[in-house]
Amino acid sequence: MPAIKPTCVRDIKLRVNIADVISRVVTLRKAGGNRLKGLCPFHNEKTPSFNVDPDKGFYKCFGCGKAGDAITFVRETEQLTFTEAVEALGQRFGIVIEYEEGAGGPSREERSLRQEIFDLHEQAAEHFYQAFKANEPAGEYMRKYWVEKRRFTPELADEFKIGVADAAGSGLGHALMKRKYSEEALRRCGLFFIYDDAQLTLHALRPRFRGRLMIPIRDHQGRVVAFTARQTDLTPDDDPAKEAKYVNSPETPIFTKGNLLFNLDRARSHVGEGKPFVMVEGQLDALRCWSVGLKTAIAPQGTSITESQLILLRRYHTQVECFFDSDSAGQKASLRFLPMALKAGLEVRFLTLAGSEKIDPDLLFLERGLAAYDEVRRGALNAMAFASRAVLPDPATASPEQKARAAQGLFDIVSAAESEIARTGFVTEAATHLRLAPAALLKDFQAYTARQGRQAAARPANANAEPAAPVSAPQAAHTSERDLLLICLHFEYLGPRLSSALPHDWIDTTHVSGVLLNRFLGEFEHQTWPGKDHLEGLLETPDEQKLAASLLFDTPSFDDPVKVACEGLRQLRARALEPRLRQIELALANSPTDSNSDPISLLKERVDIQRQLRQPIHLPSAE
Ligand code: ZN
Predict the structure, then answer these.
(1) Which parts of 249-317 are beta strand (E)?
(2) Residue that wins the pLDDT comparison between 112 and 171
(3) Ligand 1 centroid from CA 273, angstroms
(4) Phi/psi at 52 (nearest 5 deg)?
């Protein structure tokens, strides 16, 4: 990643009005002086405590404490790296980004070649789009095709800059030659076949796309990097790919197929709690979703989904709903997608329509609009329900041999998941779907894993050298919660004592183990604990079920559960109280200049926290 010149970063901060950046996301109102106020995008609130000061170029939330400048804001709301955020701002506000020379990154020539090809693609997209709008036969034909055949609106074409390459394709080369791109850029942009090696003239540039509907492909920052071209009646007979319905740009210095998801640049700002990504098969499916108001749809580029696409996806949101055609090709694609999604640590669900054999997402949304989305979500299957159904459609009548084969198929899928907890949970859940005893299936799975491990060890070391990307979330941070959960489940008699020793606000409930611990302790506290064999009513989500299942199977080897409980309590206490202590100390150090803080109450709070941290931890004895 090339470094951006510090002068350029300063320039961006000076020239970009932070209010313009933030108002794309937050509705801002005047709040005295030049200041503006709105609802914080980083935490849930009903009254605005998110303040923006355009003069200083800063924002600050008095509710959750988030603060920063325009670049921080773009980084945090769009999950971009620093460089990407600066580039995004540069593009939005028309500021040219300058990079540092040398050291590691691509050379100046490579960088300017890439920049040139980016620019060339913007120009090409504009060229195709203008041809689509023009009162020429090709434009007229394609507008009609778009509205009558594809049944999209003219507005959607404007929004996505849909274009047309006419049958001769002659105009593009001319338009680009006029703009004086370098020969290298024209040769490597992928928009032309170049027949004459000797000299690059207009006649040597044979357009790759002719007589086709042009869909610009944008990267996750919204830059046009390639095109998908749909065959139409205009496609001439001498097109070397005449029979291909879709022709894509080849790979170029700015376009790697496996790294790109169509519409991710827009979808990523619409995902969030309860709004997962929706993976559809093709670009036109994704456009259909967008047109009915389902803004989180994305599509792979070409036929196959790759791991790097999913890792990119995971940067923005961990939940994805897979909605492929219900035909066998679509179902096979779903099954290929599943292990990769598990490996990337994505929580995946499969959308289906109950009682219907044939679904085509494009047609479904066209006919029924957004209402169809709610309906297919109701019939959604989670990962294991989908996988079990695929490997064994009818478990009720299956023979033991069929079940054994199905189990092997499932193990292949489940073993892709990185986390042990997740794998155990998946197998346990799959047992229910296959109507097998969970303990037996888990035992088989352990044997399977051991066998795989031996096979992997027997393979020469360089055979599979590609290291797996580190995508699994660290579990270690919640070992205290996990230990205490194990105590609740395996030493139930300690539960009531634990609940009276552990204040609720020490538990980190942003994580599933914290949520579960909080709930379990509540049951003990109210003397309504159902016993570890009757947890069904307490488990609300598939994640909670998975975690509980793995905890129940994990027989702890604690010699002294009371000691483990006390150690867990001590760690939760430290994690809950120490950050506040550091905050107070910082505030006290700055107190002469910081008029917001009251040193007396801070000192009192400090004494109180220090006292709490010193107190010996013990489980109160049973009453
Ligand atoms: Zn906030």
Answers:
(1) 261-262, 277-279, 297-300
(2) 171
(3) 16
(4) -125, 130
Of 439, 442, 406, 437, the C-alpha closest to 423 is 442
Tens-digit pLDDT profile for residues 184-211 = 899 899 999 887 666 777 777 889 999 9
> How far does residue 21's CA lie from ligand 1's centre (Å)?
17
Burial of residue 273, with CB atoms counted within 10 A of its CB: 0-12 exposed, 13-18 middle, 19 or more buried: exposed
The gap from C-alpha 620 to its chain's centroid, in whole angstroms, comes to 45
Query: CATH homologous superfamily for 6-93?
Result: Zinc finger, CHC2-typedomain (3.90.580.10)
Spell out the domain ranges in the chain.
6-93, 113-255, 264-379, 388-456, 479-614
Kindly tell me if the per-residue pLDDT of 272 is higher than 50. yes
In terms of Cα–Cα distance, which of 426, 519, 421 is closest to 475? 421
What integer pLDDT is reported at residue 148 of this predicted model?
95
Alpha carbon distance 131, 142 (integer Å)? 9
CA of 51 to the centre of ligand 1 (A): 9
Of the candidates 562, 535, 571, the one whose C-alpha atom is nearest the C-alpha of residue 550 is 535
Ligand 1 center to 62 CA (angstroms): 6
Q: Distance, CA 505 to ligand 1 centroid (Å)?
A: 20
599 vs 154, which has greater pLDDT?
154
CATH superfamily of 113-255: DNA primase, catalytic core, N-terminal domain (3.90.980.10)
What spacing in Å lies between the alpha carbon of 312 and ligand 1's midpoint? Answer: 26
| DSSP at 260 | -
The model's pLDDT over 143-174, given as tens digits with 9 standing for 90+, comes to 999 999 999 999 999 999 999 999 987 789 98
* Closest listed residue to residue 258, CA positions, set 317, 199, 302: 302
What is the pLDDT at residue 476?
Answer: 42
Instruction: Report the separation in Å between the CA atom of 255 and the middle of ligand 1, taken as the mean of its atom positions.
Output: 37
At residue 597's C-alpha, the angle toward residues 594 and 600, to 5°, is 125
Q: Are the C-beta atoms of 558 and 564 separated by less than 8 Å?
A: yes
Q: What is the whole-number distance in angstroms between the Cα of residue 76 and the centre of ligand 1? A: 12
* pLDDT computed for residue 107 by the predictor: 54
Residue 148 CA: distances (Å) to CA of 136, 142, 153, 244: 18, 10, 9, 21
Q: Which residue has the higher pLDDT, 100 or 376?
A: 376
* Domain 264-379 of CATH type 3.40.1360.10: yes
Question: What is the band of 469 on the pLDDT scale with cuts at 50, 70, 90?
Answer: very low
